[in-house]
C-alpha cells in the first residue's frame, strides 16, 4: 500500500499531468507490484493529514523490537484537491497491483502554461518540497520536484545520514517525456554515478493530429515499448547496462488484459521475463522467470492478487419527521443507477521455487487502512514465519 | 602417555555423518553471513578420514571424581575433508556500482536511481573444499563439576589447510578465500570453540548456570592464569605453606623459572593473600593466624608430637638440632635437615613459636604427611635446578626465600623416608673437609637416610647413596658431594653454636621446657636477626663472605666429639 506521502506525490503528478509510468524504470511495474511487494514488519502506525491543499504532514510510529518513527512534511505550490480521507480514498489509488497502461496522452502545449498579466508573464512552475526525518536514526530525506515545462521535470532527492559515506548522497534527475518516448538523465554523488535511461513506445505518436481509432477487429490491441539504461560510476570506474521491452494491452482491448516484459542485462548475463494477466475482473496472475547465462542459475516466482469487492451498503433511512406527522410513508426513491462496488480488500500472495511465500492482505476497516502481511519460509520447518507485520494508516 | 584412538567406528556409524552435517549446517547458518553470500551454507560432504589425531598427555595437574585438569598435546594431519556449498554474489563490475545495488550495501533507497535490471546480481554457486587439515596444539583442559569444562588452546592450533574452490583458476579469489577461511578457522578454534564447549558443559552439568554466568565469564577470562583448583590440594602449595614463605608476585615469577605457568595457575590470588597474611603473622609474633579453608596447619598436626620429640627446640636452630641429635632422638635428624634448610632462609625471619611449630610438625609428621603430599610428585628436576644455581650461596644463606621454598618440597618427602633408619654410629666419621660453600646442597643429605643420631647427621654421605639414589641421581650429584656439604652444614650450624649446650639440657620433656624453648627460640631469632641486619649489605650479593663458618668450625668439632 502506498504511503500517504507517495499518494500525495502521485496526486501532484496527476495534477500536473505528468505520466510517471512512461519511463523505463516503470517498465516492469506490474510484476514488481505483484511479485516483489514488501510485507510489513512489526506494528506500524501512520497518521497523516492533508491539512490544507498545499500542505501535508505525516507521522509514523513503528515497533520492531524497538520503537522508531518518522516525521514528514510536504508542501506543494499547486493546490491538491484529491481526497485524502482514509475512509473515502479509492483503494485502487493506494494499492498497487496489476497496472493497466493507458493510452498515451498528448503533452500540454507549453504556451498553455503561460499566464500573462499586464504584459508580463506571471506564471510559475509547480514544485513540491518534501522532507522526512527518521528518529532515532536521525536520517533526513529531502525531495524537490519541479515541473520545468510540460514535457520535463526536475527531481532532486537527498539523504543525510552520518552513517553514510560523505554524510549523505544526492541524486539529481532530469526527466523528459513527450509521450512517444521519454528520457531521463541522472547524476548521483554516490560514486559519481551518471545514468541515462530511455523508453520508446512503438505505435502511433500521440502528438500527431490524426488519431485513427483502434482497429478493434485485431485479436490483440496493445502497445510495445522498448528501452534501455546505461550507468557509469565515474569514481569507481564501473558501469551497468540493461535493455528491456514490454508488450501490454491497452484498455480498449477486449480480451484478457496481459502484460509481458523481457529484460536483459548483458554484463551479468541475466535474462528476466515476466508475464501477467488479469484473468478476471478481480484476479490477476503473474509469473517471472529469471535465467543467468553465465551461472545457469534460474529462478521462478509466481504470484497473484485477488480483489474482494463488496456492495456498497445503503444506509437505512429513517422515516422522516414530516412523513410521520403526515401519517404517511416516505416516498421511495428508486436509485437511478447502481452504485459501484467498493473494494473490501486485496489479497496478494507470491511463492518462489525455494518455497518462500509472502502473503499480504490490504483493506479498509472503518476509517482505517490496514496492511497485514507475513513472509513464510517453508524450508525452515521449525520456524516458518520469518516476519509478521501490520500497518495501520489513518489520514484526513 | 598417549591415546590410541579407535577412529573408524566413529566414522562407521551410519548416522554420524548425516547428523554431523546437519549440525554443521545449522551452526554455519546461525550467525549472520557476509552480504556476499546470498544463500544458505550447505555442508555437502564431510569425511573424517582414516587417520586419527595424536593426543598426548603432557601433564595431569589434578585428578578427582569431580574435577580434572590436564595439558594435552594434539597433532593431526589426516585425510579428512569438508565440502561446503553456497551461492555467492560475484563482485562483478555492475555490483560495484554501489548506488545500483542498495540491498548489498544498504544504500538509502530514497536516492537510489532505481535501475531496472542493471543492478541485478550474478550469483554463482560456490563449492569450497577444505582438506589436508594440519593441526598441532597444546590443549589445556580443565573440568570441574561446578564450573564446567574449559578447553583452551595454548597456541594457534591451525598449522595449515588447503582450500580449494570453484574459483581456483582465479588466483586472486583463491588467495582471498584461503586467507579468509584460515582466519575464520583460527577465530573459531581460539575463541568460539572454547566458549561453545564451556557453555555446553555448563548446560550439561549446571542447570542453574545462568546464575553463574558472571563467574563463567570471569573464569573464561582469567583461565590462562588461574585454574579452578583448590591450592591446598596441590603439593607445591602445601610446601610453601609449610615454609611460611611469602608468596608475592616476584617470588612466583621466580618460581616460574621451570614451571612458571603451572605454579601460577595453582594459586589463586585470594589464597596467596591469605598466605601472605599468615607469614606476616609469623614474622611479627602475632598470635593471629588467618584461617585458611581446607588446610591442615602443621602447627596443629604437630601438637601431639611436640613433647616426645623434643624436636621443637632443635628445630628452631641448627645448633639446637645438633644437640638433639646428640641425645639420640630419631626425629631430630629431620629437624636438623629442616633446621639447616630453614635456618638459612627462614629462621631469622621467624623467631617465635610459629617457627617452632613448623619445625615440630616437620619432625613428627614428615613421615606421614609429607610422603603423602610430596612423594608422588615428580618435582625433582625443579629442585635440582634451583640447587645448582644455589651452590654459590654461603652457609649462612639468609639469602632469598624463594629458592628455599622451592627447594623444600623435594627435600621434605625424603626426610620422611629417612626416618625409620636405624642409628648407626659407624657412619659417623664425617669427612671433615674444610668449609664448603655449597650450602644449599645441605638439604639433600638431611633427607638422606640418617635418622637417629648426630653421627648420621654428621655423615650423610652413605645415606645419599642409599635410599635416595634416584633422587640423588636426579640431582646429578656426585657421591662425595654430600659429605662436603655436610660440612658446610656444620659450618652453618656452628653459627649458632653457643646456645646449643643449653638447649641440650632443655631437651627434657615438659611444659617448662616448651616455654623455655620458646624463649630461647625468640632470643636466637633475635640474634640471628641482628646478625642479619648487620650483614644487610651482603644480602643482595650472592657471593657470601665465608669467614664466619670457619671461625666457628673449631667450636663445632669439640662439641660433637
Feature tags:
heterodimer; A: about 400 residues; mainly beta; Porin; 19-stranded mixed beta barrel; two-stranded antiparallel ribbon; 21 strands; about 5% helix; globular; B: about 550 residues; alpha+beta; 2 domains; seven-stranded antiparallel beta sheet; 24 helices; about 50% helix; about 15% strand; elongated; disordered C terminus
Report what the structure shows.
The complex is a heterodimer of chains A (396) and B (561). With 396 residues, chain A is mainly β. Chain A has a single domain, classed as Porin. Helices cover 7% and strands 50% of the residues of chain A. In chain A, the strands form 2 sheets. Chain A has a 19-stranded mixed barrel. A two-stranded antiparallel sheet of chain A has the order 4-5. In chain A, β14 and β15 (270-277) form a beta hairpin. Chain A is globular and about 85 Å long. With 561 residues, chain B is α+β, with helices and mostly antiparallel strands. Chain B folds into 2 domains: 7-103 and 125-205; 239-289 and 297-560, no CATH class. Helix content of chain B is 51%, strand content 13%. Chain B has helices at residues 7-12, 14-30, 102-105, 171-205, 213-222, 235-243, 249-266, 269-283, 298-302, 306-309, 311-316, 318-327, 332-345, 353-374, 380-390, 401-418, 443-447, 454-458, 461-465, 469-474, 480-494, 500-506, 511-534, 548-560, and strands at residues 42-47, 54-63, 67-77, 81-89, 123-144, 148-153, 158-165. In chain B, strands 1, 2, 3, 4, 5, 6 and 7 form a 7-stranded antiparallel beta sheet that branches. In chain B, α12 packs antiparallel against α13 (332-345). The two termini of chain B are 53 Å apart. Classes of the chains: A mainly beta (396), B alpha+beta (561). Chain B: Residues 309-328, 453-464 have a biased composition (Polar residues). Chain B: It holds the Pfam family Mdm34_N.
Amino acid at each position: 500500500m502506498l504511503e500517504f506521502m507517495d499518494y500525495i506525490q502521485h496526486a501532484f503528478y496527476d495534477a500536473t499531468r505528468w505520466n510517471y509510468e512512461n519511463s523505463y524504470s516503470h517498465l516492469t511495474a506490474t510484476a514488481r507490484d505483484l511479485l516483489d511487494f514488501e510485507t510489513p514488519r512489526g506494528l506500524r502506525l501512520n497518521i497523516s493529514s492533508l491539512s490544507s491543499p498545499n500542505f501535508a504532514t505525516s507521522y509514523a510510529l513503528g515497533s520492531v523490537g524497538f520503537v522508531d518513527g518518522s516525521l514528514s512534511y510536504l508542501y506543494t505550490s499547486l493546490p491538491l484537491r484529491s481526497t485524502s480521507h482514509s475512509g473515502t480514498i479509492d483503494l485502487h489509488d493506494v494499492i498497487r497491483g496489476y497496472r493497466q497502461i493507458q493510452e498515451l496522452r498528448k503533452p500540454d502545449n507549453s504556451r498553455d502554461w503561460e499566464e500573462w498579466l499586464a504584459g508580463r508573464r506571471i506564471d510559475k512552475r509547480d514544485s513540491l518540497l518534501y522532507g522526512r526525518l527518521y528518529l532515532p536514526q536521525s536520517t533526513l530525506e529531502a525531495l524537490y520536484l519541479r515541473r520545468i515545462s510540460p514535457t520535463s521535470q526536475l527531481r532532486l532527492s537527498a539523504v543525510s545520514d552520518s552513517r553514510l559515506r560523505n554524510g549523505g548522497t544526492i541524486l539529481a534527475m532530469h526527466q523528459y517525456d513527450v509521450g512517444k518516448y521519454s528520457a531521463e538523465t541522472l547524476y548521483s554523488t554516490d560514486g559519481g554515478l551518471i545514468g541515462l535511461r530511455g523508453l520508446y513506445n512503438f505505435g502511433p505518436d500521440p502528438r500527431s493530429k490524426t488519431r485513427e481509432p483502434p482497429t478493434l477487429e485485431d485479436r490483440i490491441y496493445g502497445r510495445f515499448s522498448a528501452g534501455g539504461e546505461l550507468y557509469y560510476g565515474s569514481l569507481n570506474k564501473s558501469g551497468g547496462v540493461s535493455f528491456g521491452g514490454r508488450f501490454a494491452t491497452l484498455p480498449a482491448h477486449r480480451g484478457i488484459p496481459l502484460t509481458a516484459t523481457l529484460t536483459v542485462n548483458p554484463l551479468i548475463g541475466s535474462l528476466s521475463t515476466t508475464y501477467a494477466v488479469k484473468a478476471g475482473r478481480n484476479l490477476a496472475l503473474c509469473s517471472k522467470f529469471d535465467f543467468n547465462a553465465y551461472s545457469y542459475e534460474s529462478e521462478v516466482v509466481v504470484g497473484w492478487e485477488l480483489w474482494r469487492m463488496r456492495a456498497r451498503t445503503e444506509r437505512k433511512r429513517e422515516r422522516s419527521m414530516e412523513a410521520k406527522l403526515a401519517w404517511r410513508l416516505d416516498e421511495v426513491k428508486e436509485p437511478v443507477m447502481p452504485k459501484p462496488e467498493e473494494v473490501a480488500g486485496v489479497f496478494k500472495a507470491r511463492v518462489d521455487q525455494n518455497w518462500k511465500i509472502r502473503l499480504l492482505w490490504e483493506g479498509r476497516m472503518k476509517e482505517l487502512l490496514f496492511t497485514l502481511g507475513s513472509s513464510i519460509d517453508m524450508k525452515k520447518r521449525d520456524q516458518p514465519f520469518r516476519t509478521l507485520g501490520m500497518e495501520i494508516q489513518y489520514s484526513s | 602417555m598417549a591415546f590410541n584412538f579407535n577412529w573408524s567406528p566413529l566414522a562407521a556409524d551410519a548416522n554420524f555423518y548425516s547428523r554431523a552435517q546437519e549440525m554443521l549446517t545449522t551452526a554455519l547458518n546461525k550467525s549472520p553471513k557476509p552480504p556476499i553470500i546470498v544463500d544458505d551454507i550447505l555442508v555437502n560432504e564431510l569425511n573424517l578420514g582414516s587417520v586419527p589425531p595424536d593426543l598426548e598427555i603432557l601433564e595431569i595437574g589434578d585428578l578427582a571424581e569431580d574435577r580434572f585438569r590436564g595439558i594435552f598435546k594434539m597433532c593431526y594431519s589426516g585425510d579428512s575433508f569438508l565440502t561446503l556449498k553456497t551461492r555467492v554474489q560475484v563482485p562483478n563490475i555492475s555490483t560495484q556500482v554501489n548506488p545500483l545495488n542498495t540491498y548489498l550495501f544498504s544504500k538509502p533507497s530514497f536516492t537510489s536511481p532505481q535501475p531496472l535490471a542493471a543492478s541485478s546480481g550474478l550469483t554463482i554457486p560456490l563449492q569450497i573444499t577444505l582438506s589436508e587439515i594440519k593441526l598441532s596444539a597444546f590443549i589445556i583442559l580443565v573440568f570441574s563439576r561446578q564450573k564446567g569444562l574449559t578447553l583452551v588452546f595454548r597456541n594457534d592450533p591451525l598449522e595449515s589447510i588447503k582450500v580449494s574452490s570453484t574459483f581456483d583458476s582465479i588466483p586472486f579469489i583463491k588467495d582471498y578465500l584461503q586467507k579468509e577461511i584460515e582466519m575464520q578457522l583460527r577465530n573459531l578454534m581460539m575463541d568460539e570453540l572454547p566458549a561453545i564447549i564451556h557453555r555446553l558443559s555448563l548446560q550439561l552439568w549446571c542447570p542453574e548456570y545462568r546464575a553463574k554466568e558472571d563467574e563463567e565469564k570471569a573464569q573464561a577470562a582469567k583461565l590462562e592464569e588461574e585454574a579452578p583448583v583448590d591450592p591446598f590440594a596441590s603439593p607445591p602449595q602445601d610446601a610453601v605453606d609449610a615454609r611460611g614463605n611469602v608468596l608475592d608476585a616476584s617470588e612466583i615469577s621466580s618460581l616460574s623459572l621451570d614451571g612458571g605457568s603451572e605454579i601460577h595457575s595453582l594459586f589463586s590470588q585470594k589464597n596467596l593473600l591469605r598466605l601472605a597474611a599468615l607469614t606476616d603473622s609469623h614474622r611479627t609474633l602475632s598470635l593471629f593466624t588467618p584461617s585458611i579453608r581446607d588446610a591442615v596447619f602443621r602447627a596443629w598436626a604437630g601438637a601431639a608430637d611436640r613433647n616426645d620429640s623434643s624436636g621443637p627446640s632443635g628445630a628452631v636452630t641448627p645448633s639446637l638440632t645438633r644437640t638433639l641429635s646428640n641425645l639420640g632422638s630419631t626425629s631430630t635428624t629431620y629437624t636438623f635437615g629442616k633446621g639447616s634448610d630453614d635456618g638459612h632462609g627462614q629462621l631469622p625471619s621467624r623467631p617465635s613459636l610459629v617457627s617452632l611449630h613448623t619445625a615440630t610438625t616437620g619432625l613428627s609428621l614428615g613421615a606421614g604427611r609429607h610422603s603423602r603430599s610430596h612423594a608422588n610428585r615428580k618435582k625433582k628436576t625443579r629442585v635440582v635446578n634451583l640447587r645448582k644455581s644455589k651452590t654459590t650461596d654461603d652457609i649462612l644463606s639468609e639469602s632469598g626465600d624463594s629458592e628455599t621454598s622451592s627447594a623444600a618440597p623435594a627435600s621434605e618427602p625424603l626426610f620422611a623416608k629417612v626416618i625409620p633408619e636405624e642409628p648407626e654410629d659407624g657412619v659417623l666419621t664425617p669427612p671433615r673437609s674444610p668449609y664448603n660453600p655449597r650450602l644449599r646442597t645441605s638439604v639433600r643429605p638431611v633427607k638422606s637416610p640418617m635418622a637417629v643420631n648426630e653421627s648420621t647427621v654428621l655423615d650423610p654421605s652413605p645415606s645419599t647413596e642409599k635410599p635416595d639414589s634416584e633422587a640423588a641421581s636426579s640431582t646429578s650429584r656426585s657421591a662425595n658431594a654430600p659429605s662436603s656439604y655436610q660440612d658446610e652444614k656444620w659450618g652453618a650450624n656452628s653459627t649458632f653454636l653457643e646456645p646449643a649446650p643449653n638447649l641440650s639440657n632443655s631437651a627434657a620433656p615438659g611444659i617448662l621446657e616448651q616455654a623455655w624453648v620458646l624463649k630461647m627460640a625468640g632470643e636466637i631469632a633475635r640474634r640471628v636477626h641482628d646478625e642479619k641486619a648487620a650483614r644487610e649489605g651482603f644480602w643482595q650479593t650472592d657471593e657470601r663472605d665465608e669467614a664466619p663458618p670457619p671461625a666457628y668450625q673449631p667450636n663445632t668439632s669439640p662439641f660433637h666429639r
